[in-house]
Amino acid sequence: MDYLLHNISVNLKRIRKSKKMSLDVVSEQTGVSKSMLAQIERGEANPTIGILGKIASGLRIEFHTLLESPPMDSCLVSIKELVPTKEVVGKYKVWTCFPYEDNRTVEIYRIDIEPGGEYVSGSHGEHTREYIAVSKGMLTVVIDDEETQITEDDVFRFESDRVHKYENCTEFPVSFLTFFVDYG
């Protein structure tokens, strides 16, 4: 399940329960079937914008309330359950673990690169710092023609206001987490 479907699922259930409404009542108020509402709450449906509009209108909430990150004290993200945000078969996969959210300044991705593969990343803008922690293998980061090798025992930081490249120059897959911090 991607993070937007997760947000919709959690928010719909939270809002419905906070209003002490059953699925039957929400169905009556929104014109969306009870079975569709239950599937959305379980994260099994990919609702259209029209369906989300009916839900927002029927619950008398702002549309964006369904999409925003739900309030929570903790959150476990399982890469196995996420759909890659970007993927080039045989080269790399990128998963968005925690996107930038309102009032937050950190974004976290998991990236896997196959042997011989590379991923070129554009600038992330001024006042953005990137941190990389390798969980498996060895990663080469190229910034302005300068190469830095990062292993499982290393953590690397750099200003990500310019184009940079992640390379796997080894014969084994590499996996790493990259954290973007906006300090501007």
Mind explaining what this structure looks like?
The protein is an alpha+beta fold and about 180 residues long. The protein is built from five helices and ten strands, in the order αααααββββββββββ. A hairpin with a 3-residue loop joins strand 1 and strand 2 (about 90-100). It is elongated.
Keywords:
alpha+beta, 6-stranded antiparallel beta sheet, 26% helix, elongated
Summed up:
The protein has about 180 residues and is α+β, with helices and mostly antiparallel strands. The protein has helices at about 5-20, 25-30, 35-40, 50-60, 65, and strands spanning about 85-90, 90-100, 105-115, 120, 130-135, 140-145, 145-150, 155-160, 165, 175-180. The strands form two sheets. A six-stranded antiparallel beta sheet has the order 1-2-3-10-5-8, with no helix packed on it. Strands 4-9-6-7 form a four-stranded antiparallel beta sheet, with no helix packed on it.
